[in-house]
Amino acid sequence: KKQKMAPQNPRIIALFDVDGTLTIPRGEVVPEMMEFMKSLSEKITVGIVGGSDLPKQEEQLGDGIASVFPFNFSQNGLVAYKDGELQEVQTISKFLGEDNIKRVVNWTLKYLADVDIPLKRGTFIEFRSGMMNISPIGRNCSREERNDYEKIDLARDIRKNMVAAMKKEFADLNLTFSIGGQISFDVFPKGWDKTYCLQYLKEGDYDEIHFFGDKTFEGGNDYEIFSSERTIGHTVTSPEDTKEQCTKLFMS
Questions:
Q1: From residue 60, how far is each of 31, 68, 69, 139 by CA, in Å?
Q2: Full-prediction pTM beyond 0.90?
Q3: pLDDT band with cut points at 50, 70 and 90 for residue 2
Q4: Strand ranges of the sheet holding 232-235, from the earlier edge strand across to the other edge
Q5: 127 membership: H or E segment, kind and range
Q6: Catalytic annotation on 153?
Q7: Which of 54, 88, 133, 184 lies most in the core, judged by the most C-beta atoms within 10 Å?
Q8: pLDDT tens digits, one per residue of 202-215
Q9: Which sign, positive or negative, has the C-alpha torsion 52, 55, 56, 61?
């Protein structure tokens, strides 16, 4: 493993969202942007913090991305790398315990059995390592079925009512519920947003922690880390904008 040169200002760190910040949404990083990020990392400490898993992050940012910059966080930091070394892998089943996972799954299946909607398909619960994704119609519905369901959901508050019922039922588990997209909602432990990764940045090690992201509005997945008292938040609109803001802040 080659020894990397320390940046000029190692006590300033900038964390970057992936989608819409370093790449176009769901796209791959362009070579010029990656070059820019590497030259930025000669000036300050750089870290990546993305919501998707590492294989997806590698698709967007390139193979071996976990060891390109001093910090790499996928799934908001549930999978954490420092200087290319894996620090921790946290999962929802490890955190809640299998009995509680079973409680949530069993309750969800019973609840959904009584939800009356015109169509039901399959995959009502998708179990991911960092969350559960719950869909009353089922995730493998067609685009057309998805669009029709969304109208019914908005008119009848199906997901909203289900979330309210789950908050009451599972108050002891301290869960967060996030309704996104057209057909489903996510369930995960409180604090498992992007602020989760901040535990790896020790208070005394940095004078400034900057964060750059595009979904910094309330309800967006960059909101919590953007508004955290530990960070200086910057809203960006594209990779070009990220480059421009960083040049002004760190390169001049």
A1: 11, 14, 15, 24
A2: no
A3: very low
A4: 85-89, 79-82, 71-74, 44-49, 9-16, 208-213, 232-235
A5: strand 125-127
A6: no
A7: 184
A8: 999 999 999 999 99
A9: positive
Separation between Cα atoms, residue 38 and residue 48, nearest integer Å: 12
Catalytic residue chosen out of the listed positions 17, 153, 186, 214 = 17
Residue 46 identity: V
Query: Kind of pairing, strands 208-213 and 232-235?
Result: parallel
Condensed to tens digits (0 to 9), the pLDDT of residues 135-172 reads 999 999 999 999 999 999 999 999 999 999 999 999 99
Number of C-beta neighbours around residue 186 at 10 A: 20
**Tokens found for residue 234:** 């910057």
Distance CA 142, CA 43 (A): 48
CA distance linking residue 26 with residue 60, whole number of Å: 7
Packed helices 143-156 and 158-169: angle between N→C axes, nearest 10 degrees: 70
- Look at the alpha carbons of 50, 55, 57, 58 in this order and tell me if their dihedral is positive or negative: positive
